[in-house]
Amino acid sequence: MLGAALKKILCDQLAVNIDSVLLPKKGADMQRWAVVACDQYTSEPEYWEDADKFVGERPSTLRLIFPEAYLELENKEQKSARITAINEQMEKYLQDGIFDEIRDSFILTERTFQNHGTRHGLMLAVDLERYDYGKGSQSLIRATEGTIVDRLPPRIKIRENAMLELPHIMLLIDDREKTVIEPMVQKSNTLEQVYSFPLMKQSGSIKGWKISDESDISKITDALARLADPCAFKTRYGVSDDKDVLLFAAGDGNHSLATAKACWEKLKKELSPVEQIDHPARFALVEVVNVHDSGLVFEPIHRVLFNVDKDHLMDSFCRYYNERGCKARVIPEDELPPVQGHAIEFVTAGGKGRLAVECPKYNLDVATLQNFLDHYLKAVPQAGIDYVHGREVTEKLGKRPGNIGFFLSTMDKNELFRTVILDGALPRKTFSMGEASEKRFYLEARRIK
């Protein structure tokens, strides 16, 4: 049992809850249990078909999530039936007793990748009362990029009647001195291992250890408290008193966290103040990762547009920015881009080129492109868009007739916290923490009812 004083610091000062985590009982087929985040491979339904065949009849988080690749493929009745099946399967898994509960513990994770090293994290739940994704937010937990409120309703339908949550949310901490997670990594051989297995579809492997000793929990708590100290925060970022502490920044799964927030805001209206204090739906399970972890790589998120006329889009882009006082033009692949400004590479069935904007109004090329695309997609309703990880997939999709793929540059991860603190949330889909196969897999679960 975690001491009351330590628990109070975690909850009240740091918005952290470690009451309960569910894992499949020992002996489960973990490779079939764990499935990649539902918002990956959205233009590749064949990935999910392969996963379905691999899982077969074994217990799997695939039966507890709604892969977004199917959102556009299924009609309203099919989506409703899928959500009902998800909720029923959650109840069945609970009734069948497939879970063990871990109480009053962090879980230390180690993700090993096919291409570059390892990434470490801590599983914990955060208080949704301390999270705000709104513009200009000064909350302890914040979004790093714009939240599209229109994307929440289908996610809310999935969560609002669910017995369990399974997170692909990853929150970041700016722990340059590596004081929170890394000391636990150094002593992982003394901790109880709770899982270790290869992930499906050549996605590397994962290990997890339980951190339940109160002295270890106290060390993690103290280190987080130092990061959250207001005076140290202001000194670290050189900000004035009008900037409140940012401890946790949503790196992946921002819309899932926003969905949890929306569901909680609705539910708490039905609860008394006493019931609200420790209701499980008040919290959301996440993995916390140090932005300075050597295994955390920021990748650009590219764009693919579907059902568009290339010449019309290019003309519209140039007109959009020329009317706003920026010199914009299309330049061929073999011509050097302008020295100043943004040059956004594109690929179509007819070849490659760049959209160039001199003296852009925005600091990031993703903002230059996305602001135009938001305008264009409203004007051309038959056009569609997908946000794609990896150049190879973007090129493959962009070369199909009627498509255009746009390649964007990588953001410096060391500037993320300072940028969010000073400028607010970035344009949506500015960066990805690794490629699709490196995303968080659903593994741990938590009761929310």
How does this model look, in words?
The protein is an alpha+beta fold. It is 33% helix and 26% strand. It folds into two domains: 4-297 and 434-447, no CATH class; 299-411, Conserved hypothetical protein from pyrococcus furiosus pfu- 392566-001, domain 2 (2-Layer Sandwich). It is built from 14 helices and 23 strands. Strands 1, 5, 6, 7, 8, 10, 11, 12, 13 and 14 form a ten-stranded mixed sheet that branches. Strands 15, 16, 17, 18, 19, 20 and 21 form a seven-stranded antiparallel sheet that branches. A hairpin with a 5-residue loop joins strand 5 and strand 6 (118-127). The mean pLDDT is 94.
- Poorly predicted runs of 5 or more residues: none
Q: Strand count, sense and closure of the main sheet?
A: 10 strands, mixed
Total beta-strand segments? 23
Strand-pairing-aware structural class: alpha+beta
The gyration radius over C-alpha positions equals 22 Å
Approximate strand percentage: 25-35%
What gross morphology would you assign? Answer: globular
Count up the helices: 14
* Share of helix, binned: 25-40%
In whole angstroms, the N-to-C terminal distance is 22 Å
- Mean pLDDT across the residues is 94
Number of domains: 2
